[in-house]
Amino acid sequence: MFWRTIAATFHLWFWTVSLGPARASGPAEGALCWGGRPWAAGNFSCVDPEPYLLLGLGNGIQRMNLDGGDQRRIASRVGRSILLDFHLSEGTMFWADTHAGQINRAGLDGTGRQKLLYSVKRITGLAVNWIENSVLWSNADKGTIHRMDTDGRNEKTVLRDLSQPKSVVVDPNERYIFWLSDGVTPSIQRSDVTGGKKATVLKVADRLKVLAIDHRDRRLFWVQQGQGGLTAMGSCNYDGNIINVFNQPFRPQALRMTIFLDYVYLTDFKSKRITRVNKYTGGRGENVNSKRMPHPPADVKVVHPINQPVVEVPTPFNPGCNRHTGECVKVCSSRSDTGPCRCRDGFSLSKQGNYCEDINECALWNHGCSLGCENVPGSYFCTCPKGYVLLPDLKTCQETKPCVENGTVCDHACVHTAEGDVCVCPEDSVLNSDGHSCTGCLSADRGGCSQLCVTLFPGRWVCECQPGYQLQPDGKHCAATGPPSYLLFANVVDIRKINTNGKQSRKLLEEPRGTIIAVDYDPVQKRVYFADKGLKRIERASLDGGFREMLFSTGLDSPEGLAVDWVHRKLYWTDRGLSSISCSSLNGLDREIFIDKDIQKPRGIALHPQAQKLYWTDMGSRPAVERSGLNREMREVVVSTGLVSPSGVTVDHGSQRLYWCDLSRGVIESAKLDGSNRHILSENQVGHPFDVAVFENVLWVSDWEGHLLHRLDMRTGQNLEHVHDDTMQPASLAVVHPLAKPGADVCLHENGGCAQVCESRLGLAYCSCHSTHVLSADGKDCLSINTSFTESDDGESSDRLRNKTLNDESTPLAMLYTEKMISDQDDCYSLRCDVNAQCVLQEGRAVCQCVRGFTGDGELCVDVDECKAGLADCSVSEAECMNTAGGYFCQCKTGFSGDGQHCMDIDECRLNMHNCDVNAECLNAVGKYQCRCRSGFTGTGFSCQEKSKGAPSWLSTGSPLDVTSPWQHNNVVQSCPSTHDSYCLSDGVCFYFPEMESYACNCALGYMGERCQFSDLEWWELQQAEEEKRRNMAIAMCIVLFITLLSIAACITYCYGSKRHFATCPSEDDVGDISMSEDSFTETTTTTPQVYVVLDTSPCGDEKVLHVVGCPRATICPSCSSDDAGGIFASEETVKLQRDNSSLDVASCSVSCDVHKFLVTEKATDNLISLEDPQAAPQ
């Protein structure tokens, strides 16, 4: 150890002296280029082209010179929170919009923009591999790092089961991927580019904020932040050695950085500037841009070939192959390499011969698929339309027909074919070699996965684990992290604890006179609760056996089942004698009857606090497994058939399944939480199973008849083995482990054992201290920090601290500090410090100082709301900050469960936590759920009514979503990004059409409209209103037309009546004879209608009437001369006017040709009617 420390110190000294000072020595020794500035010292020569900064600013991407000049925008509408990187040889840049969940690319000039990936939540790192032409990104929620080609193809997961990875960087020449792990212990991790050879480079006690890579010196740079907010910059080589750390003030909010030559470029969120500092010595930063930017910079990169070098390294293996693995898989090590490159099945070598391309098998005559074919990277799968099923050969589609023979026994379904009856499997599953059973995510074995099964495409899936578990090398089983688990069980006269391997059994407590058959524990207060059937009482004790307390000794008859609600802090128990289930608080208060109706002999009981459900077994005349909400609502029977004496019941929180046993039949069964997908695990292997417990991959069973404990595989029921043989009569079981009861807040009791700040993560308490203290070696207490360290005469203590490096674990950091003491305690007692303040020594006198989480003058301290002030570090998007006195905690939002640092979506549909109508189906979504009425019903989903047969078609225009494979048409329609979660209203499902770059909504039944903004009733009312408007318009038009016709008819009637009036009003006796000959008639026509004005005194009245009468045809004037060119004349001399009894006789439309008194003329030029003197008329 001594020589290792000496060697590390020598390497650090050599790197700092030979490289650092030389490269920071000044302009005299530096290379002057790119504006005449010394960008680096030593043997450095300028390389064209001139470097420039690429930075995210506001909602765009800009570039500017290293001196802040020539700033211009090259891309817009990219998002305000982005991660940047570039591919210089391809001339492209890539950015990840962390809010929208998209990864895009464009040319370095902003042209050729393309979206590569959609709907990816919590992107925390982005890096470009410029040799393998791929893009890497990290996902903090899933704990994964993914890759894809720079054109968006061949996406795959490189690393899994990581602890909140972020700040991904890559060195393609060394074939390394580096990232920050923001888990319980912050660290820098490393793996090769294929995801193998994973290792920890460095562990750091402080929180790591950002990571950058220096390709020139092959070093990693990071920024760390301590408890007091102090920041420092550190660097090390790729192996975690030769560490250099120096204090450097930063604002860690949204900090990003990049390395170029001798400088580190950083974003400053508050000052809205880009600053650079010397990467060897730090010091005061220099502002790149003199003026404040309009927005805080989001990310920054220096674009230059130095930052993306291509190192030609000779390889002892075949030319053109990977120098680490000796073969070419997907990509060769360099474009200039020659020789054979081998590709995996499903890929072919590119034309350039240096990388592998996916083969589209479906383009080759459907590759044997009888109907449909879907291509995926490296493979393909066959599909069938509705009404057909895929046969076990995974190529042939067969029309669905029921089997003829009854002898065919299939796990899922049976269809009849020309060759006979065959078994088929559900979608995405495959038939096992036995020809009867299925395997896959939707099959009974869940693809062999102990917890989560994720389908990649039909016939292929992967297993994943819940937070806190690690996937085992077999790729199927999940193992819990943390301390080892043990089994707690009731043994009639005592309670025992035993290791999971069946060894080291010991008694926790004894009760020789009793009959203890029910037991459970509280992970928060570390107490065990048990029911004594013989003594008729319920007690509790500490898990170490040093404490015991009576809760109930009256009002009990036969308590046989007991369960602790570790989240809502309640105790539930069954009483077979009283036929009831009761509950109380954990201290025995607020006791009440929970259920006492329609229940006979309740025995086993189990809780699912996240689902708000209580499960129990009833061994009465109607045996059943039932459940109810913790609010006593929605009680229902889960299983009621095939039961005789259902005894024990438990919930597996990892796989979200229910397990129970039948005491009389000797059967152990499993099903989903709603009773579906029921499956027999064991039959007649255990004589009389009394209770069951599940954890990790093991199912524990207590045998009431054989007085034994058994364990078997929780999925298959196989591998049965005996655990313990010297038990008396094992009864109730419980597995003790921090992950066995997820969601427990262990900080609720005595602050989790922490002296100051407690944080509950995955069932464990993590302690930390306020800014003026450091955590002690025991991980719980806090030691006060002196304002100045006490130095020995030779300065040894100061040198030890100054020279200590982060990977030196020889001495705990806390031991470098001494506890601060006040020499004169009377000074503290004389002060009136607030309860949230402490007495400290400053400048030789005692003063009151508010502790961390409070602010004030010491005598009055008020709580700091870290949530509102933005000081909280609730980095998970599914969590929200909750302020407390002196601190805060992160709590998962509604619709999610977890400890606030790891939040998982609650499947309300699977856990039956929804309020959908009985005639509706539940559709789970992230953080919520949707209800959709089944076929034949209509409504909102929360209320569904049967459709009436005579209902008009427009009352049900919304149609159910087509249930198709998520891989079909994956290039046509996609799910909307998180930014459009509220685009579709009324629980509509949002879709994005990349071809049209538009969004659309598929509305739930009962709603319609562009954004599902109308309910059926509202739509009907709008349609009615539109119909009413159209009807009213039609009626108005009809009325106007009718009035018009009436007016025309009235005019016609009036005119016709007037003609008759002139024709018939004078008697025929008063009409004079008019002598005319046939030869005297001359027909004269004009181009305009003839108009006559007659002014007379009506014989039918006393008034004078002016009549304007138009003849319907050309007027025929008797005895007219054709030589008259002046018009048509009328004269009173040629017409005999006889007046008798003041009567005037006028011949209708008959006039004379000689004019003596009046001339009536209609001028064709202007259609004016005038009365003129006949003598003034032209002759």
Largest sheet descriptor: 4 strands, antiparallel
Question: How large is the radius of gyration?
Answer: 46 Å
Termini separation (Å)? 145 Å
Strand composition percent: 35-45%
How many runs of DSSP E, i.e. beta strands? 91
What integer is the average pLDDT?
Answer: 75
Main sheet: which strands, in order across?
5-4-3-26
- Principal-axes geometry comes out as globular
Protein name: EGF-like domain-containing protein
Organism: Culter alburnus (Topmouth culter)
GO molecular function: calcium ion binding; growth factor activity; Wnt receptor activity; Wnt-protein binding
InterPro entries: 6-blade_b-propeller_TolB-like, Cueball_EGF_LRP_Nidogen, EGF, EGF-like_Ca-bd_dom, EGF-type_Asp/Asn_hydroxyl_site, EGF_Ca-bd_CS, Growth_fac_rcpt_cys_sf, LDLR_classB_rpt
Q: What is the fold's blueprint, element by element?
A:
Layout: H1 2-18, H2 20-23, E1 30-33, E2 37-41, E3 52-57, E4 60-65, E5 72-76, E6 82-87, E7 92-97, E8 102-107, E9 114-117, E10 123-129, E11 134-139, E12 144-149, E13 156-159, E14 165-171, E15 176-181, E16 187-192, E17 199-203, E18 207-214, E19 219-225, E20 231-237, E21 244-247, E22 257-260, E23 263-268, E24 273-278, E25 282-287, E26 297-303, E27 347-349, E28 356-358, E29 372-376, E30 379-383, E31 388-390, E32 397-399, E33 413-417, E34 420-424, E35 430-431, E36 438-439, E37 452-457, E38 460-464, E39 469-471, E40 478-480, E41 486-490, E42 494-499, E43 506-510, E44 516-522, E45 527-532, E46 537-542, E47 548-552, E48 559-565, E49 570-575, E50 580-585, E51 592-595, E52 602-608, E53 613-618, E54 624-629, E55 636-639, E56 646-652, E57 657-662, E58 667-672, E59 679-683, E60 689-695, E61 698-703, E62 708-713, E63 721-724, E64 733-736, E65 757-761, E66 764-768, E67 773-775, E68 782-784, H3 796-803, H4 825-830, E69 837-842, E70 845-850, E71 854-856, E72 861-863, H5 866-869, E73 879-884, E74 887-892, E75 896-898, ...
Antiparallel strand pairs: 1-2, 3-4, 3-26, 4-5, 6-7, 7-8, 8-9, 10-11, 11-12, 12-13, 14-15, 15-16, 16-17, 18-19, 19-20, 20-21, 22-23, 23-24, 24-25, 27-28, 29-30, 31-32, 33-34, 35-36, 37-38, 39-40, 41-42, 41-64, 42-43, 44-45, 45-46, 46-47, 48-49, 49-50, 50-51, 52-53, 53-54, 54-55, 56-57, 57-58, ...
